[in-house]
Design brief:
By secondary structure, the protein is an alpha/beta fold. It has 14 helices and eleven strands. 42% of the residues lie in helices and 16% in strands. It is globular and about 60 Å long.
């Protein structure tokens, strides 16, 4: 009998039915009946519910769960984490939330046009106040993987259609209307992808790589230098070759997905960049944003574009400095040294990924920066009660 993809799918469905029957797993971890349908299996809802039930009822549950996950991953190319991740064609890995956004599988964010306008007007005001202090501010929108690499998304997930960057378009329009210094990272990355066969995103990852991020980093440097009245440096590609994924990265991905092992990705682009003209870095930069900052910092720190970089991940989740020196987690707003680590930098970048709508951390940063730069927040003021924003990593 020829083993086709359709037959493998049916085999997987019946395999999980056998697992459920043997384990007596009639209900999930919350006491609800398991959704035993082909549609639930296709979307990962059945696998996720069965995994939770197994983890509660079966001795040695960790090994059984990992073995089950490994079967889904290796044999069926199905995500063991349900819709947290989506495995597409050629085993392209996507974030489930960004696929839902791209495939119109969820409604747009709750923010109204007025919300976007208010945020953009506040951001424009902050930009002007910073400019008066000799600080360049740049807002950056970064692309989720479906926007640049949509061809790997399983077509059945886009049954309702495709609508790239519904929320991002509203944000970009509002920021442009308010004259906020802006870099459209999605546009630049799609341009790179169209001009070259070099991957801009990792095949088995959901984030862009340094090759995908370098045009956005170059535009950040151009805008910042223009605002500061400095010579404009430009990033140049000095070398590009391909390497296999380090073993430890594959092991980290396997752990994240609850697997025993994950194959190493082959032929990943490794780009060496240079900064022309070769200027001595003489200013500090602060970057506030989400997980897409990693590749931007890899590029900027790699060419020593700045004397040092302070990263504020989701503003309050952690602070990390480059070169290494500072690392602090679970910050309160008042734990941030605003005069030193924010207003003490010559360049401030606010990065927002295009599938997050209007991120809480971005609104919080702009609101707090406006208050503090105008003197309405100081160390002697009453402590501000705040909690880190909900984690919505793509």
């Amino acid at each position: 009998m020829r083993l086709t993809v359709d037959r493998l799918f049916v085999f997987g469905f019946f395999a999980i039915l056998v697992t459920i029957g043997i384990g007596g797993l009639r209900v999930d971890a919350h006491g609800e009946k398991l959704p035993i349908t082909l549609d639930a299996f296709r979307t990962g809802e059945l696998q996720r519910a069965a995994e939770q039930s197994v983890s509660l009822k079966v001795t040695g549950r960790e090994h059984l769960t990992r073995a089950y996950n490994q079967m889904l991953w290796s044999l069926l190319s199905s995500s063991p984490t349900g819709r947290l991740f989506v495995i597409g064609k050629d085993r392209q890995l996507y974030g489930g939330v960004s696929v839902d956004e791209y495939c119109v599988a969820r409604p747009p964010s709750d923010e109204t046009v007025a919300d976007y306008r208010q945020f953009s007007e506040q951001t424009a005001k902050l930009s002007l106040l910073l400019k008066a202090r000799g600080i360049a501010f740049v807002a950056v929108t970064t692309p989720s993987k479906p926007v640049v690499v949509p061809q790997g998304i399983p077509r059945y997930l886009c049954a309702e259609g495709e609508s790239s960057q519904r929320d991002a378009v509203r944000l970009l329009t509002a920021l442009r209307d308010a004259n906020v210094p802006l870099v459209d990272g999605a546009l630049l990355t799609k341009r790179i992808a169209a001009e070259s066969d070099v991957p801009t995103f990792r095949r088995q990852g959901i984030h862009w790589n340094a090759w995908g991020a370098h045009a956005t980093a170059d535009e950040i440097l151009r805008i910042a230098a223009t605002h500061l009245g400095d010579p404009v440096p430009r990033l140049k590609v000095a070398e590009l070759h391909f390497v296999d994924e380090p073993i430890e990265q594959a092991a980290t991905r396997a752990s994240l997905l609850g697997l025993y092992w994950a194959e190493r990705e082959k032929a990943m682009p490794h780009v060496k960049l240079s900064l022309e003209p070769g200027l001595t870095p003489r200013c500090r930069a602060t970057l506030v944003g989400d997980s897409f900052l990693e590749a931007l910092i890899e590029v900027l720190d790699g060419v020593r574009a700045f004397e040092s970089i302070q990263e504020f991940y989701y503003l309050t989740m952690y602070q990390e400095s480059f070169p290494p020196g500072t690392y602090r987690e679970n910050l309160e707003i008042d734990d941030i040294d605003w005069n030193k680590d924010i207003f003490g930098s010559k360049v401030i970048v606010l990065e927002m990924n295009n599938h997050l709508g209007l991120p809480d951390f971005a609104r919080l940063f702009v609101a707090e920066a406006l208050l503090r730069i105008s003197g309405r927040r100081d160390p002697s003021a009453a402590r501000i009660g705040s909690t880190p924003p909900a984690f919505k990593d793509p």
